[in-house]
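We modelled the chain as a single entity of 211 amino acids. Its sequence is:
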Amino acid sequence: MHVEYVTFSERKSRIEYVAQRFAPQLTGRVADIGCDQAYLREIRPDLDYTGVDLSEAADIQLNLETGLPLPFSDNSFNCVICIDVLEHLDSLHQVFEEIMRVTAKHAVISWHNCWVNARKPLERGRGSFSHYGLPVERPVDRHKWFFNITQAREFSHARARAMNLAITEEFVTDKPRPASIRGLRRLLYPRQEAYLNRYAHTLWTVFSKTG
């Protein structure tokens, strides 16, 4: 599988990457599901942009756990993006189906590798990792799923077959690291699947409608 080396210091830098990397898909009317602060609106003012989220920055304030279906007609957008959102939702499957319903052409989805931050604490037998654990107070946000790159790929391909979608692009992103460290890790984990499940932080999938 193709690997790109990039790291994101904050949510906005991730969306800047999305705006550049997926420029061919981001044309015309675009929906950003789970838009957070709607950074894409600022980065790409040429788009007919609609952000959906609970945040005040969203064009449509909606709880993706309880507010389905999305308030759009079928095939309403040239492209729908959903960036590091689905792992936060009990309604992952329903939101995925809604994304595919409202896009007319493309959907860009990023799947956070939930294993990557867990690796070191589990190996050490101590510590914690973000969005999991047992906080004393109920958190506002947490991950509802714990999947790796392989599982996200299997889900994507199974859903694409079931919904008659084409996967037109698929790759992972990994943090830039010294060649010596990457080389040692590849010696320890020569199968790409195992390496990516341990170290790659995101799977990116572009779905396209074929009909």
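As a brief sanity check on the tokenised model: Strands lie at 3-5, 29-33, 48-53, 60-61, 77-83, 103-112, 165-174, 202-209. Residues 157 and 167 are 8 Å apart (CA to CA).
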